[in-house]
Structure formats: C-alpha cells, structure tokens
Fold each of these.
Amino acid sequence: MKSKSEVHLFLFLAILVSLLCPQIAQLSSAQNPGLRFAISFPETSNKEPLDGRLLLLISTDTAREPRFQISEDLTTQQVFGIDVEGLKPGQEAILGADAFGYPVRSLAQVPAGEYSVQALIHRYETLKRSDGHTVKLPMDRGEGQQWNRAPGNLYSTPQNVTIDPQKFATIKILLDKVIPPIAPPKDTKYIKHVKMQSKLLSDFWGRPMYLGANILLPEGFDSHPHARYPLAIFHGHFPADFGGFRETPPDPNLKPEYSERFKLEGYNKIVQEQAHQFYKEWTGPNFPRMIIIEVQHANPYYDDSYAVNSANLGPYGDAITYELVPFIEKQFRGLGKGWARFMYGGSTGGWEALAAQIFYPDEYNGAWGACPDPIDFRAYTVVNIYDHKNAYRADSKWKQTPRPGKRNYLGELAATIEEMNYMELALGTKSRSGGQWDIWEAVYSPVGRDGYPQPIWNKLTGVIDSEVAAHWRENYDLGHILKRDWSKIGPKLAGKLHIYVGEADNYFLNDAVYLVEDFLKTTKNPHYNGEVDYEPRAEHCWNGDHTRTNAISRLRYHQFYAPKIVNRILKSAPPGADLTSWRY
C-alpha cells in the first residue's frame, strides 16, 4: 500500500506527463522528420561542388513542367526551397518538413496524393566586391534572371510521385538535366545588338561585368550617312531581343492562345499583328526618325538594375548614362547631347525613366513613366513604410487584417503582400529570389553586415525596420526627393516629367502617383509643367492612351511616345541644335 506522499507524487507525475505529451510528440516529430526528399546530381550533370538554392516543385497540373508553374496568382503550384553550399556530385541534399514553402509552408502540410514532382538547383557564384564583402549570388546567363530558365541550372525530369507526409519515407530525385545555353539574337537591317564591358561595374563587382542593348535603327539610316539622331531609351524588364517589331505578317499557322488577363482569344496573334504594324509605321514616310534602345542590365539580383546607383548592385545609373549611352551614340550617330535623349517605359521601366530623369536632370530631356513602380514610399503599394509598423497586416490591436498585394479591376484579390513575399522567401533567402520585392530591397537598401541587402521588413513577420526606411526615403523615394530638392532640380525638370497610371492598377501603383501629383501641382519657380493622367478601371500597365484598350495600348509604346518626343525637342532644343539632319 502506497503512502499519501507516494500517491501525490504519482498523481503529479501523471499530470506532468499528460501536459508534456504534445511537446514530446513535437520533439519526436522534429527528430524524425517523416517524409523527405533526397536530391542529388551526377558527375555527368556537373563535376564540381555547387552552391545555390535547391527547389522542390510539386504540381497537380501535368500540362507543363512544375518549374514553370510558380507564381503569385491563384493558379500557382507548390515550391519548397533550401540553401546548399558545396554540394558534391552524388551527395544527397535532404529537403524535409523544415524547408520553407509557398503557398503551403511545410512539406508536412501537403495533402496526401499523387503529384508531378520536379527539383532544380539555381546556381550561385562567389563574388568578391570592392566594398570588401564576399557574397554568393546567381549571375545572369543570358536569360534575364529567370531561375527556371537559367542556363547551367540543373533540374530533374518530372515524375509522378505519391506523397503522404504521415509516412516516414525518403523519395530520391536525380538532377539529370542541365538547362542549355541561349543562342544570341542575330542582327538585322533595323535591329542591332551591342555589348560592352563596364569599367564602373567591373570595378565594383571585382570581375568583368557587361551592359548590352538592343537597338532599333531608323528607316533611312544607311541612305542618310550624315544624319545624326535623337535617342530614346525604352526602359523595362530584360529584353532578349528588341520586342514588338516584326518585319513579316503574323504567322497564319499560329495556334490561337487565350489571354486570361485581357479575356481575349487569340491574343498571341494580336501581339504579332501589332508588332508588324509597328514595323510598317516605323519604315513609313511619317514616323519620327530616331534611335530606340532597350538596355540589357540584368545583374546578380534581378533582370534589370533599376538604372540607378545602388550600394548592393553597384553604379548602374552612372554606367548606363556615362558609359553605355555615349558608346551607342558614337557607334550609331546619335546627337550625343542631353537635349536629344529621352526615356519612357512601363512598370519597372516607368520608375526607371522617372528616376533617371530626376537623378540625371541634365543628361535627359524628358521621361514618360507609365504605371511606375512606387514613386512615393508613403504608398509602397499599400504600405506606408514610414508610419506603418507591419507590412503584412494592418496596424491594429484587435484585428489581423492582411494587406492586399494584387487585385483585378473589380478589386478581387489574387494575392496578399505576405503571400507574395513568402513566394520569394521560398525561392531565395537574402534578397536572392529574383522577385519584385527582393529587387526593390536590393536596390534601395544599405548593405548589411553579411554583405547582402538590409531587409526593409522581416520577411517572415512583416515588421518594418524604420532605420532602413529612413535610408530609402533619403535616397530613392522620388516623391520625397522632388519635394526636398525642388529648388535645386526643379528648373532642370520643368516640362520633363510625365506620369500615367490606371486607377485600377493591379498592384495599387496609382496610390503613389496621387501623392506625387499632389506635390507637383503646388510647384512654383518653376511649375513642373508636365503631365499626370489616369484612366478609370484601367489595370496594369496603362500608358496614357485614352483611345485604345489596355490590351492594345501596351503594345504601342513607341508609336504613342515618339511624337511627344519630337514635340519636346522642337520646344526645348538649344539655339544651333541640329533639327534637320534627322527629319527626312
């Protein structure tokens, strides 16, 4: 018979065990991760150890490879990612329940079932920058920083796999394929391609770095050897070749494809029709004669640099303005003066055009920015990085209301800001995803102690870093810079700033435009004398054309802005400027 003290001890232990059972179970689960994937590559794929981001892709859609099905939209499939360093041929990298995933956070939460599964490693290189930091980043290899298409990346053949997270099993995947190199585009009569090593960027990165451009030459370039031309930069995402220019009629055998975005059947044919129409107008008798270039400035963080100097990316603004542009003007008979240089673009290109005009006011004579990325960080999409505490949820004591990230013109949401950032976190840590939020961070942020960009907010929780936000404000918040420096730069910008955005922009980019317009309307000595315009119900990326639908106007940037450029030249060219040799 037990004493009372023994009974009390027994009861105490029983209660303690019952309380600890969930914790014990969790500990056991952590030590025994259950389902996991063992991923390796053979020497036939690569003979040297690899650094990079290892991705596991899981899909319910067998129409395409899983690596092409990850997006911020509702149609996205599943991805998990882990960093690997020095992974040797034949060595297995283990991806289990602790790997970060999107949209589902953990492999343990994937519903049991049959899936198409694929793995891929996005390769990193070790770079020793001039600022003393050594970083591991994916170099662009001609694809425009697309992890699923980057030459040299290893990937596996998709296979049907039964996944059951409750079972303790190891599924082996072999990275048996390598993405091949991309053949460079060929020159034609009208389209040329140039590439130059940038001293500024090479010095910064501690290795040869290059800038490229796709160049559209005017009709009559060869038959008017004494003509010198204005130059327009069409800013935007990485262009493999000069897009939207087609010398031949649309392919009669083209299989029509439906555009979910524009709700149009056969939109691929419309794209070809508009490209051929541009060719006919460009070579016709009345189109303004100028040189149009698309800059290739993909870098270790993104498919372009945002055309400004950056602590993390290097002096891309100076390299483009003072190295690449004069290089092209010299080779292709540009006028070579600030009054004869112009910029336009949409989205990323819209921000770049406006930013470069503001940062280099004497080097360019006009910027037309359509649907620009946030030009005022009080409306960094829907986040005020100065006043808000959390980027993912509204500041509230009692509610956890998610902040929206992507909508359609009816306001229906496809993604929250949190979801969009989680996708990037799955694809790459330390701002290395190649995604939109990460490149903003890489361009605008100071360098962290580890050599990578200081986060504007905690990628997991959304908590905003006010010190980083202050750095952004003073260096890259275009609205703040215009207001702060108007007395100095205003006289150089009068008549040069033109901004267009749809009021149903998918990424809420119209909000920042409202704030900048509020300031521009108040400018004096001088008045900004430009244009800010909106289109009701227009989504991303409306460019200022009220006469056409967004689906068509987005294909006609050159036709829409070229006459505006000529008008600007005729109004602002200095005495003695060449206004005749290129007007034939």
Amino acid sequence: MGVRMGQERDAGGLTRRETLAAGGAVAASVLVPDVASAAKRKKARRRATSGRDVAILGGGMAGLAAAHELIERGFRVTVYERKALGGKARSIGVAGTATGGRRPLPGEHGFRFFPGFYHHVPDSMRRTPFPGNPNGVHDNMVDAMESRSARSNGRADAQLFGIVPDPGEAGRPGGMQRLLVEEVAKQQGIPPHEAEFFVNRVMVFVTSCDERRYGQWEKTSWWDFVGAETRSEEYQRVIARGLTRSLVAAKERLASTRTIGNMAEAFVMNFQNRGNDGAPDRVLNAPTNEAWIDPWIIHLEKLGVKFVVGQTAEALDVRRGRIDSARVRDRRGKRRTVEADWFVSAMPVERARGLISRRVLALDPSLEGLDDLQVDWMNGIQFYLKKPLSLVKGHITFVDAPWALTALTQGQFWADRQFTRDYGDGTVVDCLSVDVSDWDTPGILYGKPAKRCTREEVKNEVWAQIKDHLKDTGEGLGDDHLHSWFLDPAIAWSKRVGMNTNDEPLLVNTVDSWTKRPTAGTEIPNLLLAGDYVQTDIDLATMEGANESGREAVNEILRRSGSKAEPVTKYRLYDPPEFEAAKRVDAELWKAGRPNALDRHP
C-alpha cells in the first residue's frame, strides 16, 4: 500500500510529521519551499501531459527503480543506458578467465552491502521473482553478523559495533552514551577523555532539532564538529577520518555534519535493530548480477519495459516550455532522437549536468546548482585467492590503511556456489573484494596517491596495505595466496598525463550543498530527475538513495499526469522517539539563537 499525498512511512511504521515546528529564518529557507518556487511547480504541473510514454535516461539503480514503479502503474517505459544495466551495483565478468564450462571470475565496481536501515531496495527485491524463493530476490540476501577493525603496527584489532542485547536500554539517552563510550574507548583505542568528548558530540547531534541540523550542522564540516584539529592523531584517524572515508567515501574536512551525523545515527539505530528491515548487515549469496540485477531485468522485461543499451544521452531539446525530445548516441557514434511524453534523467550527476543546456536552464534556473556538486572516487579491486583466508564473517576495515580500505571474503556467503566448481579455471577458492575509498593520500610502497599509480601499482599497494594489517595476527596474507586480481575497469591509466581517470566516480556530500541538490520534480513540466544526488531522506550516495529518488520521480509523474494509480511507497529513516522532547527544547534554543543544551564544544 502506498503512502499518499506526501506522507512517508518511517522505518518503524509511523507517519512522520510533514511540517516542522516554527524555526529560525535560515532553517525555514532551507526546509520550506518559497512561494515563488511552489507557484512555478504548480504551473509546471498544469502544463504537464497525461501521456503514458516515458524515456528513462540511465539504467542504474535509480533508472531501474523508476522503471519498475512506472511499468506497474500502466506507463510505457523505455530505458536508455550508455554502459551496462545495474550501473555501479552490477557485477562484471572478468574476460578470459572461464575454462571448463565455468563462468568468468566475478569482478565488480565495489562490494555490495545492505544495512538493515535500507527499506526501498529490499522492497524492490521482494517484488522481483527468483526461482525457489518465496520472497523473490530478497531471499538472496544473507546476514553478515561479524565485523572487524584491523590495525597495523601491533595495535590490537577490534570488533565494530555488534547487536545490542537490550535495545530498550541502549535506546535511552544514558544507555546510548554508555554504549558509545564502551565501543569507542575500549574497542577503538581512543583515549577515554576523547571518547567521552566524541560521545557528547553525537548526543548533541541526536538531540538537535531539524532546524539546527539544516541551519547549523549542514554548514559545519564533520572535522570541525568533532573537534579533530586539537585532538590526538588516533582520534583524528578513527573518529574524523575513519567514520567518513571508510564507511561513506566522504572527506572529513568537506563533509557536512548533517550528512555524517544522519548516517551515524542510522548506524547506531541499525545495530540496535530499531526500525530495521532485517539484520544490521547483509550481503548477497552470489555475484550481484546473478543474485539480483539479471532477475530484475528479466522481470521488468516481462512486464513490458524496453531496454536499449549502448546509448549515451547527449542533449535535451526544448520546445514550448517543455522537453520535446532527447538526443542519444550509440557506441558507433550514430545519433538518434528519442521522443516521449515524460523524460527521467537517471544518470549520475557528472553526466546529468551535461544535459543542462542554456535553454534547459532558462526553464529551471535552479538546475545551475548541479555544477557545484562534487564527486570523488570509491572503486574496488578483487583479489582471487588460491588458498583459503579466514578473516571475519562479515566486513573488515583496515583502519590504518592510508587508502581507507574495507573488504570481505565473498565465498563464505555463497552457499550454493563454489569458486573452484563454478568460476574461473578451477583453482580459485575465494575472492577478497576490497573497496578503495581514498585515492588522494600517498601509499606505503610508492609514496604516491592511488590516482597517480598505474593499475599494477594500485594492486601492489592495496595488497601491501592489507598485509601490513594482518601480519601480526597470525592469519598472515602471503603472496602465495594470490591467484590473480581485477581492478574496476572504470579506472584507466593515462601515460600521457601520468595519472588515472575514473569513468564512474561517486557523489560526495559537502558542507552546505543540500540546497544545491535538486528535487526529483523540476520546474520543467515533463522532466524529472533521479539519482543519488537528488534530495532524499537517506541523503547519501547509495543504492538506497538512488532507489528512493527513482520512486519520488515516479510519484511526481503521477501527480503531474493526474494519474489515479497508487503512489509509490516511500520510507523515512527511523526517528528515535526518546529524543523528541530534547528536540523540542532545542527548537526553542535555536529560535533564541542559543546552542544545543548539551553543546560544550570549546
């Protein structure tokens, strides 16, 4: 059942209030659309069409989610994708590796994981059939119940947050503080007084009203919010740098506190199993395409979605105040014109802004804000192993790695598949899949950032940084483990300029960028936007954010077309009720120009 007329279901099944308490003028300007913009959108809806043909430009997470919702509501949908369906979430067969009737070794842009606070993606999965699965593709997710922080130079490894035995106790403010002190001080090696200070900063954020979050913390970097500049190197490494680069591919001096704070709160709730769809951490039981993307595409094709792959959207043609057509180019350079009643731009921001010509901008000047949004690199490398490696039944973070590495061994989760039997040449037993989140910091082998390393040097450097974290644990990773490796093909070395290019970067949230991000509905009556750069509740470049934005684009089409179809269900992050009273107090403090009651930041 969809949630109608702007109401959205939060992770706990509650309806979150639509309006905010009266706040400061700054917050109001951020949170409440101005009358002129609202009037323009209303005018755009009046000029919208009731036609049913939709062209979706981009076949990644946002485009597939939008196609799924539209086709179920009686629209005629064609998806145009330049590269490969599934976008950054897809898996990539390694060419030339399959022998003896096996499949190619599975490569990928980066490993997939599905926190329990994801709701949009799991919902789409449940509605995608998979042979033998009562809940469709959703049943291909398996729980990853352990996690680990590996340290170098003899420092003790730590377990990351685990399942809290008593979520009720941990959910109370005092319980949350004790939980965070326990985890941060004892597990991560932070000096106790700094751990307590960090916990205070977390409590300041979770008790901050929405007006303060948008009016103050959106404009404050995470580095400044947690007071990193005047604290120990360990604090800077674990709290300021580790929580941003390893988990969300953000830069601690640039990332908005509102964004990182929202994710910190979501992860804490996640590990308490509050408002979760399932276990706090889940992975797939097979390569992504086999477990998820291919069944999704097959299902959508059966429903009537048409896919045209190898088509790059180059321009939008404007006529009489609306999008008349789109121009696309195939891989041989041949151009064609795409006509439709509705156009959904579901491409990443660095490509979507290429469609915003002066004529498009004249119809919606706010789209100029796309030029101010930033992207960065978070790409993966896979190491195929010929000897087993037992690290942890889940994800491992290499805390001291200058390239901000996270990884997991995949074979342990693939119950119905075996590497030696099903993939490669029959000698690979597992895959250590690694995400590289920092491409700008010099490494330990060559003294160069990843962007300036050749593909071979990237491999050597990542391998060395991982070995450096494991050599004192007795688990040792040796060169005799390595069969072969595969670096995301989006990374390409240019000998001419002496550095890499990246065909698939990732949006990063920066200080005060929220108002520059568009909503799904533009002021152009038949142009909608979908992608992880669009304003969403998840507010992060994730599969979940992309899916959420695709759903909102569909809801906007339903509103503008006057459709009687059921609106698409949307979810909100869990909003812990125990902080509501503190937030009401903070709203009054914000109006009075005073700091949060818990804020003792020097």
